UniProtKB/TrEMBL annotation:
Residues 274-366 form the Glycoside hydrolase family 38 central domain. InterPro entries: Gal_mutarotase_sf_dom, Glyco_hydro/deAcase_b/a-brl, Glyco_hydro_38_cen, Glyco_hydro_38_cen_sf, Glyco_hydro_38_N, Glyco_hydro_38_N_sf, Glyco_hydro_57/38_cen_sf. This is Glycoside hydrolase family 38 central domain-containing protein. PANTHER family: ALPHA-MANNOSIDASE 2C1 (PTHR46017), MANNOSYLGLYCERATE HYDROLASE (PTHR46017:SF2). One of its GO terms (molecular function) is alpha-mannosidase activity. The keyword Hydrolase applies. Keywords: Glycosidase, Hydrolase, Metal-binding. Belongs to the glycosyl hydrolase 38 family. Pfam families: Alpha-mann_mid (PF09261), Glyco_hydro_38N (PF01074).
Amino acid sequence: MSHTHWDREWYHTAARFRQRLVALLDAVLGRQHTGETFLLDGQAITLLDYLAVRPEREAEIGARLQAGTLEAGPWYVLADNLIPSGEAILRNLEAGHRVMRGLGAAPPPVLYCPDTFGHPAALPSIAAGYGFGTAIVWRGAGGAAHPASDAFRWHAADGASVATHHLPPDGYEYGSALPVEADAAAARWQRMYSVLTARNRTGVLLLLNGADHHALQPDIIDAVAALRDAAVADAVVQRASLTAFADRFVAACRDVALPVVQGELRDSYGYTWTLGGTLGTRAQQKRRNALLERALLRDVEPWLALSWLHHATARARGIASDGTVTLAQLPALLNIAWQELLETHPHDTLCGCSIDHVARAMDARQESVQSQAWELRRAALNLALPHDVVTARLRPISLDTPQALVVRNRAATARGGIAELRLIETLADVAVGPGSTLAAPVDARSDAPPPQVSGVLVQPLDARVGHQRRESPQHYPDNDLVRVHRVVAWVPEVPALGLRVFASAPGDEADTDLPNTVPAVRIVESATAVMLDNERLRVTVCDGRVDIEQGARRLESALSIESFADLGDSYTPSLRGEPERLTCVETVVRHRGPLRAAVRLTWESVDRDIRVQTTLILDAAADLLRCDVSGMNRRRNHRLQLKWRTGFSDPVTVADAAFGPVERHVARAPVDSREAVVPTMPMHRWVTQAQLGDCVTLFADGLAEAESSPGALSITLLRAIGELSRAALPERPGHAGWPSPTPDAQSLGRFRARVGCMLHADDADRLGMVSRAADALLVPLCGETWRDLDPASTTTQIAGPQLHGAALEASAVTLAQRGDGIILRAVNLSAAVVQGHWQLPHDGPWMVTRCRLDETPLDSPVRRDARVAFTAGPREIVTLHLTVARLA
């Protein structure tokens, strides 16, 4: 099978590689050989890159794809699949299919993953959800725990499986540059045949003719003829497409008993390089990616669904005559934001193993997506409330104007309690243009008390003065000087995936007491220690030592920060010597309750080239200790970890991953392995150690590397390295990539993270408790003042879908990609059958269709009212398509 493996950016930028891509595809399209096929890797973005330069060839590209002589997809980009969330993996597939549909074609029926640095345990479920009967993988399989076979049946936890072809040790380039001379072809065939047949189970061999950025071999017809002659006694050699191979492979798998593989594929030790050490490289970019994914999934898509559920005018997707953004534009704009974020997901990009120019381009894309997400959220909320920005722009605002506080609940369960709010006061109008320097002075102090919200207890945190604009498509912006107060508040219950609107105005009397059932959090100081206590959790800080008590559970000296010398490269750590433990040099009380107590610890290295501040935060009624990390790194060539002691000598480790938890073990490499095992692991939202009925769970907001060792859980804050690849590493002799200096990857400068720690029981509700705690930390109740929203004319509560069922976790609430309606997706985190239901905000009536992940119906539509019941099998991903029932 002729192909190219196209790393879109790596040791060159995407723009530079695109120049070569255009020449490559021009050459492919210029050939007129009957039946000749070419695989443009497993990603569709290469088609867009080519058509950006050659738009006049779109019809020809479409015709070639439809005829099967050119293949691309199913992915939008060949992404890393261990770092992104499960929903981001689905968005990648959907974007790839969208490109192919736009060209009138479909991708090959193969989940093609030729160079990903490992694969999630849920990938067979994803394959089944898109109708793929075949997967092709290389790295991640072949280790000591896997069968010595080029074909296996890969099972997911929900029972889905996919026939998987495993590439040979040299991967997708094994059949590159085939010779045309008879003697050379015979010698090459003997070498290849011995390797391929040693592991073959099906009688079908796949020889990939191509390599990184390789164009189609010009004399491939003669080379295949020579190979056919050389192999005549052993095999029938045919040129084939990826689709043709998949058909033959699936048919052959039916006739043999394939070995079974379960779980993640993260072990190629002794077979080929696994390259599992990239998880901590350029750690802040990985963290920002997780924040952006979460922003789109939890703070944009649900509000689009909310507007669809409540407003027939929004469902109509009409174009607004005044230029306001509506559902006529928002789905396409959301897709564009996702596509730009996905452009940062190729494994060389997101894993951090590219040159600095590529990393800077990733920074720019992430900044762009952040800006788009903010505007998408605002537009979606305007529709959901609803809020007419054109009329509101005409509403005069002053310090005395009643204003609305809009609180958002980004979880699929109703929640009240602690909310993080931005209360905004309008101080003065700020003119722009000639004469604007003559504005009268105003009180711009940042230490003024915050506005009060009627019936809500507020605890100030800090404030700043700045500018804020009110905008509409019919007016110039109204620029105002404002004072923004950051506060925590105790709010009444907010509907699931919904909104609650409160009135706020100067002069309102503030609540000063918490409900009787909620103890206030308090700070107790002595000459030697500071204690935070909310009657559920007690944290004591003394001379840099942090002790945590939760019921009968106690952790002593729970927190430390360690730096290890790391002489590795972007792919592989190479740790040296003993770790340096940073010293706590200062302890300062930041907040004293009654809603939030906080103590800031400052840590420094001996040479004072690493400085880290960890702010321990305990909220009223919280079961989780939050730790906000900010630091300054001036040290090169080291790894910095935040380490939490667990006290477990022989724990079981379970971690969050794509579409549900997985149990994790450190792989064991054979003695002849060319690569040492990297003991760290991917980190999504949480990782748990459990032993003898007790658990310690560590949460993080996007740092992608964790480590579980006897007695401790650690998170990598950063890896400071200065080379893309080094050849002389004892852990991995030889270059893994093209050597290039990467001074930006030294991660000099500021870094941040939000983590949390929870002590709890290993009981039946463990997974549900951890899921709720993750939401409390990562998507807390939040809100801000809408200065031009009139609270008197706004609905006070707008409810979204609420998920019910033990161990069920909401995965997506979003607009359908194919046709009208919304998608409700839930994951059963447990190994038991669960009866669940979505409670909708009103009776509709609705038509509900159970469907695959790609929205292909599995059952006939069923008419439902506000209660949409379903059964979720063990670890099943349940996707429901909801539309409005038509009246008879």
